[in-house]
Amino acid sequence: MKQFEEIEHNLKSKLKESRYTHTMGVAYTAAAMAMKYGISVERAYLTGLLHDCAKNIPEEEMFMLCQQHKISLSEAEQQNPQLIHAKLGAWIAKEEYRIEDEEILNAIRLHTTGAPNMTVLEQIIYIADYIEPNRKPLPHMDKIRQLAFTDLNQTMEVITTDILKYLESIGSPIDSMTMQTNQYYIQYNREKRN
């Protein structure tokens, strides 16, 4: 599709090569997951393409843009600027890439922290970002990749648990939304089992 080609070309000029490779990996993984879970492949691919569109903006500029456009940041986001690109990316997707689809914008906005009770598209982008083929292999990545194609809710629990353990181990600030997401999916899966 012409729209995809234009976005891909634009991103290739804006992102570092490794980030562009990751972006394409997320887009293709999201499209494959969309086929499995019966949602629009095009919307999943488009969201995957745009999920990191703000990633290579310098930190100072990210803060400035958030301030200018009244994008509120959590305490964890202020302490860990790597998280800011998600909210800023949703704004850029709307303003620069003319994306009006609220679910796509929300999936971009939530792809770093997650949220309780996410839609299938939102879960797919969050998970695809974690499991795409170019990611550094983690100890049980193969199991997570299999799980991603069988149960989104369980995958959300496993990934958020892993992320929280990792952030605690390096003493990094933890966004409360990531904790809420983890608690929600632990509870959801427990109730489903009972």
Taking all Cα atoms into account, the compactness measure Rg is: 16 Å
Shape: globular
Low-confidence stretches: none
What is the number of helical segments per DSSP (H or I, 4+ residues)?
11
Q: Helical percent range?
A: over 70%
Number of DSSP strands? Answer: 0
Which structural class matches the secondary elements? mainly alpha
Order of helices and strands: HHHHHHHHHHH
Instruction: Tell me the strand percentage band.
Output: under 5%
Question: Can you give the mean pLDDT?
Answer: 94
Gap from first CA to last CA? 45 Å
Report the major sheet: none
Provide a quick synopsis of the model.
It is built from 11 helices and no strands. The protein is an all-alpha fold.
3D structure, described in words:
The protein has 194 residues and is mainly alpha-helical. Helices cover 70% and strands 0% of the residues. The protein contains 11 helices and no strands. Helix 7 runs parallel beside helix 8 and helix 8 crosses helix 10. The mean pLDDT is 94.
